Amino acid sequence: MTTRYEIQISDLLGRYLVAAKDLKAGENILTDEPFVLGPTSDSALVCFNCYLPLISKFLVCKNCAVAPICPGEGCPESFPKRWHSKSECEFFRNLKLTKSLNPMTMVQNVGSLLVLRAILKKDTDPQAWAEFMKLETHLDERRNSSIWEYNDNTVKFITTLGLLDNVLDESLVQKVCAAIDVNSFEVRGPPIPVLGYSQPLRGIYLKASLLAHDCVGNTHVSINDNNVLVCHASMDLKKGETIYYNYTDPLKGTSLRQHHLRIGKYFKCNCERCKDSTELGTYLSSAICPECKTGYVSQSSDQQWDCHECKKKFEHSKIWHTVQCCSDKFDVINKKDEKELEEYIRNVSKILAPNHYLLLEATQRLAGVLRDAINREPHPTKKLMRRKLQLCKELLPVLEKLCPGISSTKAITLYEIHVSLVQLAKKLFDSREITGNGYMDELMNAEKYLKRALEMLFIEPGNSPEGELCAKALEEYRALKATMNNVLDGIHAEGKTYVPPCETARPITEN
Ligand SMILES: [Zn+2]
Ligand SMILES: [Zn+2]
Ligand SMILES: [Zn+2]
Ligand SMILES: [Zn+2]
Fold first, then answer.
1. 106 C-alpha to center of ligand 2: Å?
2. What is the pTM of this model?
3. Mind listing the pLDDT tens digit for each residue in 296-326?
4. 334 to each of 331, 362, 365, 389, how far by Cα in Å?
5. What are the residue boundaries of the SET domain, all occurrences included (predicted)?
């Protein structure tokens, strides 16, 4: 594979990646194995070899008699990766003899395992270690902060292993903690078979950690079940363009995204979206103007919110308090209850802009609740199907703006729109509310959404939840084509012909 990216350096971004040639949407930019992978700092106990959660009992490694590992049959064979390496095992075995290291110490310090494994790389993989040490750490901002104190436990643990001999090394542990905090990617831990329960992991990917941030990225990053990270271009990129990855949740408002970046990554984002109080015209953080009741007010400075319509200015505290009340209310409602979510959306729609992130989250939750209800009930109602369809369609234009090009959330939304269209059309046709021709119109409409979903899902790694959805969607595409052929046969059997609608005609299920 020819190199698709090159590393550049600037004062603002540090080391970052740019496209080394023109790249097409969906093109693979880089593939990366983890330098280290391990539990988060507040993780529950996991097997040191395969990272499966250890719920009630565990064994210790036969060789070192220190590392807690899976009981019974041992680690499942389907997880090929073994993280308790030979050299680590020998290291533990040695400490067992010289410093009476015991399994309980390891159990109590599972949150420090990732840091320990990173430090052990210093000797086992000096080249990668040198690269790791070059990563951004923001050490000065962290010194004397609560996070510095929090990491004291890890420093003490590493000290007891005899890995450090002077004060200077303590700051090395802090530096490793910082490099992990600032640069790690969230990784799904392996789930316990049948139960599905897993512990979240964090991984350091040396190439991918050089991706610069923008609140509207131009890449799509996925990590498969073997912990391999793949980064694709989510849109066409020109040679020399900066390659951006969005470290934050694109469906959160600017103040929440900025907070997340400040706390976790130690920088203030200054991207186009962050500088635009309308968030690219989505009004994702805006409220309905208390004065004109038709315009939206957005925060224009620390002190002030402005109405885009009547131009009236409001004190920050006044609008902030209103938004906070809506947020507090969302925290306490039952997010699995259809009625509570509907009521929340009804009430908050009178106060916040239609695409406010709180409303979007409620919309996503409600669409999920309705999807489960439709799948569960033997005879789901048309009303239920129409409502779910409407909710998914409300999400789509926001996703098109904030996650342009390829995005998993958008692919899932498109897929769900297709599911609703097909279910609803079948129901209408079965109850003779639409003719064969009407049914065909609906199925062709659904096919458009499914095709777009598939175009995005194709790049997902096979062994990931999105990859599994891709396989399912492909299966449904075949079924949809078969249904369409049957409906066409039915139309022909009646001696009629099917004429597809012109693009502007609107199928009936859309309202
Ligand atoms: Zn295991
Ligand atoms: Zn061992
Ligand atoms: Zn930003
Ligand atoms: Zn106004």
1. 12
2. 0.91
3. 999 999 999 999 999 999 999 999 999 999 9
4. 8, 11, 10, 22
5. 1-248
